[in-house]
Amino acid sequence: MPSTLFVCTTCRRADNVDDATTESCGSKLKRELEAAAESLPEAARPKIEGYECLMNCERACNVAIRAQGKSGFLLGGFAPVLADARALLDYTWLYNASPGGVVPYRDWPDGVRGRFCGRIPAASADPLPQARSEPALEGEK
Ligand code: FES
Questions:
Q1: 61-107 pLDDT, tens per residue?
Q2: Would you say the CB of residue 24 lies under 6 angstroms from ligand 1?
Q3: Confidence (pLDDT) at 141
Q4: Ligand 1: does its nearest atom lie under 6 Å from the Cβ of 16?
Q5: Which of 19, 57, 124, 131 has the highest local Cβ count within 10 Å?
Q6: Is 11 exposed, middle or buried (0-12, 13-18, 19+ CB in 10 A)?
Q7: Where are the beta strands (DSSP E) in the chain?
Q8: Ligand 1 contacts CB of residue 53 (under 6 A)
């Protein structure tokens, strides 16, 4: 199952924060990713989608990676430059090849080291079976 890279298109780094009239860093990073992905074989290209705010604004630019049946990850602190885009695409290739989305640390591209901000567990087919321990709300049965 191919992965999706969600790129926060509203992220602004400190040097971009006071100028709302210019393109956001996140939007520029998305363009860099799309341009870098063009050079990859089609099977290796992740789906790249823009998303407005991944709720990690203080570590702009932020990207989330997800795929069906795999842990998802939030990464931040990227610059809107080709080198960071390539590091993300290299990591995405490894992520796609991993069984559960966990790429061994030793294999991480240098450009993603220190950028992980969160892991989201893979959704199960039976979501949160133990989570409903409180009584049902009135009228809900
Ligand atoms: S604006 Fe990018 S995470 Fe909030």
A1: 999 999 999 999 999 999 999 999 999 999 999 999 999 999 999 99
A2: no
A3: 46
A4: no
A5: 57
A6: buried
A7: 4-8, 47-51, 63-66, 72-75, 116-120
A8: yes
Query: Which one of 3.30.1330, 3.30.300, 3.40.30, 3.30.70 gives the CATH number of domain 4-120?
Result: 3.40.30
Of residues 36 and 127, more confidence is placed in 36
C-alpha 113 to ligand 1 mean position (Å): 20
Region class of 20: left (phi > 0), else alpha (psi between -120 and 50), else beta: alpha
Kindly state if the Cβ of 60 falls inside 6 Å of ligand 1: yes
| Ligand 1 contact, 103 CB (< 6 A) | no
Q: How far is the CA of 56 from the centre of ligand 1 (A)?
A: 5
Domain boundaries, the chain: 4-120
What is the reported pTM? 0.85
